[in-house]
Amino acid sequence: MGGTGDGPVAPKRTFYQRMVLRDILRRARKHQGEPLSPEDWAAVWELNDAPTARVIRQMWRALPSSPRCGMCSAPFAGPGRFVVRPLGYRPSRKNPTLCDTCVESSPPGGMKMYTGVLFADLRGFTARSEVTDSQAVAALLRRFYGCAEQVLFPEAIIDKVVGDEVMALYLPDVQRRITREQVPSLMVDHAMELLRAVGYDSPSGPFVEMGVGLDVGEAFVGNIGERAVYDFTAIGDVVNTASRLQGKARGGEILLSERVASGLPTAIGTPVALELKGKKAIEHAYRVALRARS
User: Fold this and answer.
1) What is the pLDDT of residues 215-259, one digit of tens each?
2) Domains assigned to the chain
3) Residue 169: which of 181, 182, 187 has the closest Cα?
4) Kind plus residue range of the DSSP H or E element containing 26
5) Chain centroid to CA 223: how far?
6) Mean pLDDT within 247-272
């Protein structure tokens, strides 16, 4: 599972991006639109630390000004943006601290990597939509999405925004600003901040009811899809587990997997044993609640 919905169409690439992609596919002996094998994709990813890539990053860093892509250092503002933007180095729609070239326009295919997954979902949204004006519903969703962006950026990549649900990824092998050891604590902090952002732990209470699910582990990450429909996302058991945990969380609650809990400096939450859809074994998790003030 990598989120729901039909999936976005791959972004239109610049001439420079198409030229680089053709060269990558030629070296991997792949046809246009054919995904790279995990070994090929990993080799391409390792090029980010090759001498040529380091020289390019030095060139980009020499161009004013910040903010910049956290991977390739391409500038997003100042005079430097006029040099790199025509080449496709513009902020990614999934995380404004990374560029389109490094994320959406990376080659088709992917590889396994350490991944943190956060799912946040609104409770009772469908029923509420049936009795609420559509314009008011749209405004509520925009407010919810705004809270998610404010809390999750710049450390997380917002992978999916589907209706009343947000899926975020934590990829320390992609994002240079975070480490593997930081991911479990960072995810819990973000989940707590997101609950507070929508109004939990406040006198007025939340403007929407929301639950959160967290898991961490190995997932298949990359530009996944067929032909013209690609999406930079993650798939695998860790994604499924986070989604199922979110489905079991009540409003104002976070359910974190045992894998997340084992990476925290101190134990939190109440241990629970859950039956999750699609899983044969009982899932051991921890329930953390943040309620509105009385």
Assistant:
1) 999 999 887 776 556 678 899 999 999 999 999 999 999 999 999
2) 15-106 (no CATH), 110-289 (3.30.70.1230)
3) 187
4) helix 15-27
5) 13
6) 93
Q: What is the DSSP string of 110-176?
A: EEEEEEEEEEEEEETHHHHHHTS-HHHHHHHHHHHHHHHHHHHTTTSEEEEEETTEEEEEE-TTT-T
Confirm if 95 and 157 have CB atoms less than 8 A apart: yes
Please identify which residue in the block is written with the tokens 């003030």. Answer: 293
Own/partner pairs for 88-91, CB < 8 Å, 24+ apart?
Answer: 88/13, 88/14, 88/16, 88/17, 89/60
The one-letter code for the residue type at 288 is V
Mean pLDDT within 264-289:
90
The dihedral over CA atoms of 110, 45, 95, 171, expressed in degrees to the nearest 10, equals 70
- Best-predicted range by mean pLDDT among 1-10, 62-71, 120-129, 200-209? 200-209
The SS3 call for residue 285 is strand
Report yes or no on whether pTM surpasses 0.85. no
CA 56 to chain centre: 26
Instruction: Please give the Cα distance from 191 to 246 (Å, whole number).
Output: 11
CB 105 within 8 A of CB 88: yes
Tell me the residue type at 87. Answer: L
Rounded Cα distance, 191 and 194, in Å = 5
- At 55, is the pLDDT very low, low, confident or very high (cuts 50, 70, 90)? confident
Residue with tokens 């406040």: 202
Q: Compare 177 and 65 and report the one with higher pLDDT.
A: 177
Identify which of 183, 87, 256 has the alpha carbon closest to the alpha carbon of residue 72: 87
* Side-chain-facing half-sphere of 4: CA atoms under 13 Å: 9
CA-based nearest residue to 174, from 118, 95, 237: 95
